[in-house]
Amino acid sequence: MIYVALLHSIVLAPGRRVVMSDLRDLAVDIGYRNPRTLVSTGNLVFEADVTQPGETETRLEAAFKARFGKPVDIIVRRGTDWLGLAKSNPFPDGEGSQVIVRVMRKPLAPSAIETLRPHADAKQRLAITGGDLWIDFAGKPSEWKLLSALTTKRMGIGTLRNWNTVRGLAEMIG
Questions:
Q1: Which helix (H) or strand (E) holds 143?
Q2: What distance in Å separates the CA atoms of residue 24 and residue 152, rounded to the nearest whole number?
Q3: Do 101 and 142 have their domain in common?
Q4: Alpha carbon distance, N-terminus to C-terminus of the chain
Q5: SS (H, E, C) 87-124
């Protein structure tokens, strides 16, 4: 079965990031097959025997901490689920780098949008599909205060990916 793993952060220390070849090696070392990465931001596609995504997250997180000495949250989705996520984009008309999805470990409740509204600009669109939060930032995400409201403390464990990355991973899966 094909899986997608998204690392919340690949920064190990100031000026030191995980190199994608090291991430692929880690996946092979723990028994995953055909690991490939997309861009250098912690996106891994691999093949493995069928397991629950939560078990795969736990295994990857433990291996990452053992190898790199730092804990990191890793979100895992089955390939078929990732393709469903890509098809669920409620803002396909948005600019690829400005439409962001916060891929969640546990699904968000619809009320999460109301928690974020005070931080959003009127031009920004928000939606939850399949428990993941989609945002059309209507500009560079780094220029808006909404980005700083998307913390683990407020939202739960998750990680952000832009629409270009979501599509790229979907293409890798096929």
A1: none
A2: 26
A3: yes
A4: 13
A5: HCCCCCCCCCCCEEEEEECCCCCCCHHHHHHHHCCCCC
Write down the pLDDT at residue 1.
Answer: 96
Query: Mean pLDDT, to the nearest integer, of 20-34?
Result: 96
Alpha-carbon distance of 84 to 65, in angstroms, equals: 30
Tell me the CA distances in angstroms from 135 to 18, 63, 140, 162, one per residue in order: 27, 32, 12, 9
Find the Cα–Cα–Cα–Cα dihedral 111, 116, 121, 126, rounded to 10°.
-50
What are the tokens at 171?
A: 């293409």
Contact between residue 64 and residue 73 where contact means Cβ atoms under 8 Å apart:
no
Give 13 or 56, the one with higher predicted confidence.
Answer: 56
Instruction: Count structural domains, the chain.
Output: 2
Q: Mean pLDDT, to the nearest integer, of 18-30?
A: 94
- The sign one gets for the Cα dihedral 50, 160, 139, 110 is positive
- The verdict on 90 and 109 lying in the same domain is yes
The residue count of the chain comes to 174
Beta strands at 43-47 and 33-37: parallel, antiparallel or unpaired:
antiparallel
Please check whether residues 90 and 168 belong to one and the same domain.
Answer: yes
- Distance between CA 7 and CA 82 in Å, rounded? 15
